[in-house]
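Board notes (copied after class):
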Amino acid sequence: MNVSRLFIQRPVATALCMLAIVLAGLLGLRLLPVAALPQVDYPTIQVQTLYPGGSPDVMSRTVTAPLERQLGQMSGLERMSSVSSAGVSLITLQFALHLNMDAAEQQVQAAMNAAGTLLPADLPAPPVYAKVNPADAPIMQLAVTSDSLPLPEVQNMVNTRLALKISQIGGVGLVTLAGGQRPAVRVQANLQALAAMGLGLDAVSSAISAANTSSAKGSFDGPTRQYTINANDQLLTAHEYRELIVAFVAGQPVRLKDVAEVVDGAENRRLGAWVAIKNDSASRTPDARQSPGTSEIELPLTPAIVLNVQRQPGANVIATVDAIRRQLPELRQSLPDSVRLTVLSDRTQGIRASVAHVELELGLAVVMVVLVIFAFLHSARATLIASIAVPISLAGTLAAMVLLGYSLNNLSLMALTIATGFVVDDAIVMLENIARHREQGAGPMEAALKGASEIGFTLVSLTVSLVAVLIPLLFMADVVGRLFHEFAVTLAVAIAIS
């Protein structure tokens, strides 16, 4: 069996084939995405329902339980967990690995629609879902600060100009705000004034609810024309609320400003976030201090709105973060000059450093393999011939990884590192056998053909046996199987190409 005869007799075609493999590998190296590990995330969706004023028990009985009954009927659902707290219901759905995220999303939407009639009628908004795993750490954190604008106004800008734009980027699953202060009108009732007029807090609450509505007002229908009544009863500022009539006492109107203090403020004044942002003039600011005994500068804390960006399950972390960074200049331009947008943390920095370290180890492994070959063959020419198998095999593997949809991660790079020791075995054995025939007086072509024909079947069987060792990894189930599947296939492809 001489599988090498065709390549030995056509050296030019063989050289061109090798060059094509190397070029394909270089192109594949540019196209391969970078990640920490192979994508093995479970399709996960989180359903959130807000019901202000609801206690945990009420949320569990009236919101979480009806949703769970409908969501629990979905096919492919492996795990469902829920948390009911004051005014918030969170349900986390984890689907089977083989289920497509889009299919899971459609099932969740259908189940939420079916549960709509079972939820409280006064629910301010229907349940919403996000394709995100709540256990995942944010892939990026952004801070928005301003020295002149109040935080409620800054949060309004963040919601309308930043959060929506970032959520539209591919791979982003959820954008949440920390330390945000949503703008609101705060009504602080004067209990003594209410008691003096014979009124209670329920009268104030009812008056505010009745006056602050947005509903259809009807229309005028005449013989020749029809008019639609367009009026907005919603109150937006504290000044508008102050003039609201709460009740009539002794024939006189009692306005809200008579029994309460109405101010523009934040919905929850107990929320806040502070960041220490370093800039060029940080060390020269009056609030900056130097730590005793060290050269570090303690930066002043600045109130901020922090955006936590989480990825969708299965999305590439580095590709998603790179897409966000490309949008940052445009996002900064949409903000006033007094508002600053700063990157607080970037999870890809550790991933990039880890992958770069493994790439360095791969390079060192290739060098060590070449040195070991030279130490035993004692010939630079023979070492060069045998070592050519290493870059060609690795380049061909990179091209195959692109076609298979793999990424350049720690496990695939580990497979390439291990493969550097396997891919030269066949070349060394073949080279030694050809050299033996040359020493016996055979010509170069004759020695190559004889040497290849004698051990061709042996080398093929050796390669097949090495690949067969990896078969159990290919059929492992669950997350571990998905994790090592890419490792096994990458190593098998490298051995086969050699």
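Comment from the instructor: The longest strand covers residues 77-85. The chain has four domains: 5-38+351-497, 42-132, 138-182+267-284+297-346, 184-214+232-266.
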